[in-house]
Amino acid sequence: MTEALDWRTVYDFWFPIELDGADTATHWRMLTWWMRGGASAELGPLAPILDAARSGHLDNWADNPWGRLSLIIVLDQFTRGLLAGTPEAYASDPEALRLAEEGLRNGHYDALGSNWEKFFFLLPTAHAEGPDHLERLDRIVAISETALEEAPAHLRPIYEFSLSQARGHRGVIGRFGRFPHRNALLGRESTPEELAYLEKGDYVYNRQPPQG
């Protein structure tokens, strides 16, 4: 059955329209769909793909840049949409990170054509906790700063939001070394400083993009 699963199913679902050359309103609409749960709400029929990916049956997708990107999206994004509220939502982060880091080394990242493809390719480097997390986020911030500098004027607010998110995540990891909002779900005891942060509730991942 897994032989019939094609990475293009994921790619076409996640990138349903061509954004290169699209107007500002279309970009905002896609950003809203990705970040405000629109995509997650439609993931149900694709759950078997996540099961196959987590079992290692789709590893061959990583043979080309767009297949690798699709597998990263499954392990990094589908997990958060389909397994939200469970520890399993984060269980595939190390594998998604491995795929992204390997793709940075072997040229797959550079082969991608659009900034949005590259954005989702790199997300595991921001999401996956670990000893080198701060270093990875410094790299994400630098990439986001360059992307903003190169963005066309009408898309700058979108890239400014993306940069603010990267800096926000960097600030949390720089302060705590982990994402405190995951503590209870993962059975981790929060420090007093983390409890104060959690009580405030200003989580970076909950910050909404401004309306376009």
From TrEMBL:
Top-level taxonomic group: Bacteria
InterPro entries: DUF924 (IPR010323), TPR-like_helical_dom_sf (IPR011990)
A Pfam family assignment: DUF924
Designated name of the protein: DUF924 domain-containing protein
